[in-house]
Amino acid sequence: MASLRMRGWSLMAVAALCLSSGSADARKPADGSPHAAKVSKAAKVSKAAKSAKASTSDEEPEETLVQKDARSLQTATGEPVVMAKTAILVDPRTGVILWEKHANDRRPMASLTKVMTALLILESGKLDKTVIASKTANATGDSSIYLAVGEKLTLRDLLWAILLRSANDACVAAGEYVDGSVPKFVAHMNRRAKELGLKDTHFVTPNGLPAPDHYSTAADLARITLEAMKHPLFNEMVKTKTHTITRSIRKGNSVVKSRSRILWRWPLADGVKTGYTKQAGHCFIGSATYGGWRLLTVALSSPQVGLDTQAMLQYGFRAYRSRKLAEKGTLLLRRAVPGSSNGAVAFGSASDVYGVFSAKDTRPVTVRYEWRPDLSAPLSAGQAGGQAIWTEEGAAPRPTLASILKPSGKGATVAAAELVALEPAPERPIVAAVTHNRWLAPLTVLILGLLGAWKYATRAKTHRQRRSRLS
């Protein structure tokens, strides 16, 4: 327990130190103090200008960077203090929900929309193709890279602009290139959402600009982000602070910077996406990695998305631990395979397997195996044979984003993985000969049938002879 407390307080200390390095505005005295009363007219004008800019900016509000005692980010029971209307904390490895607040409530999500846009761009496989900006892209306002009509950029550079600067015009240009038009691209976004099993998400625009019937949930946005995180390039981009793109016309506007203040000021942070509109409020998909373990958060409509994100991430790292249950390609068990010439075939996990556990619990973890009903030789190395399921005895079932973890009557299912053969399992020679020879198989059946008939006739003859002697 002592080490656990030290771990939690060290995380909070790092966060507090980083938050204390915020902007000068974040360190000003509260209104009503002698110094605050001396604010000049110019400063007031500047403040008004910032307020006007905030109506379309994806940056987190300044108040998220006010220095606070790290302990104020949690309740007396250790739960995170979150002001967002809806939020979620997820373990990306398992999809387990570690904490949530109205995570299935539908809300506008502003530029968090762009994670789905980025996913479709990555899945298009056209990253190095050249895109020519249209009049529609040029006319797209608010946050942008100010594309000129006819300007040429690669789809990859548009993606950088989308994820770092949150460029609305880049979303339009990319959508037009990937699917031919913005309406077709939006239809593609909605199809992909259905493929992911999302029932509370509907897209109308590729960039999140306000539109009726454009909504999602914290849980659905987490699912979309987990799918995007399967692409290494996405993870590289969302943790990058500054990148220079190549442009054919407006070359002086080639540096794109991340709008996430958390990414700039919290060393553990490594993504993901900011968002703001007046209708949606401040939104943020965040992630951080501590001790090799990455966690994901979503917060919608919050006056302090930075602190909300930090509170959830610190809670996750403090209250839970990730444990490796199996390594890809290592032996889990040996078992006989019907028809195989091998006495016992080695099976292992097809991937690294992790489970999430409460930092306070030490319940035993057991593993059981479910095998394919048609499992038989021959098997090649790497071929699936069944599934391994790990259960934490006596633990309550865990909610997940996807039904990848089946419920268990004895406890919580913490992980499941496909079992694959680690070595070939060839058929026995006679079995292989009978199975694969087109003439031998029916001939064998015929011979066995004749042998059976002969045996039956012999027994009948013997029986008649015995009866004749008795008579």
Structure description:
This protein is α+β, with helices and mostly antiparallel strands. 34% of the residues lie in helices and 21% in strands. It contains 13 helices and 16 strands. It has helices at 2-19, 41-53, 114-124, 135-138, 155-165, 168-179, 182-195, 218-228, 232-238, 261-265, 305-319, 429-436, 440-470; strands at residues 86-90, 97-101, 130-132, 152-154, 242-244, 255-257, 269-277, 281-290, 293-300, 320-326, 331-335, 345-349, 353-358, 365-371, 384-393, 411-421. The strands form five sheets. It has a five-stranded antiparallel beta sheet with strand order 2-1-9-8-7, with helices on both faces. The chain has a five-stranded antiparallel beta sheet with strand order 11-12-16-15-14, with no helix packed on it. β8 and β9 (293-300) form a beta hairpin. α3 (114-124) runs parallel beside α8 (218-228). It starts with a helix and ends with a helix. 40% of the residues are buried.
Concise structural overview:
By secondary structure, the protein is an alpha+beta fold. Helices cover 34% and strands 21% of the residues. The chain has 13 helices and 16 strands.
Tell me which oligomeric state these chains represent: single chain
The computed structural class is alpha+beta
Distance between the termini: 93 Å
Mean pLDDT: 84
- The string of secondary-structure elements, in order, is HHEEHEHEHHHHHEEHEEEHEEEEEEEHH
Work out the helix count: 13
Radius of gyration: 31 Å
Portion of residues in beta strands equals 15-25%
What is the strand tally? 16
Outline the biggest β-sheet.
5 strands, antiparallel
User: Largest sheet, order of strands side by side?
Assistant: 2-1-9-8-7
What coarse outline follows from CA principal-axis ratios? elongated
Q: Give the uncertain stretches in residue-range form.
A: 1-6, 13-55, 61-69
Helicity level, as a percent range?
A: 25-40%
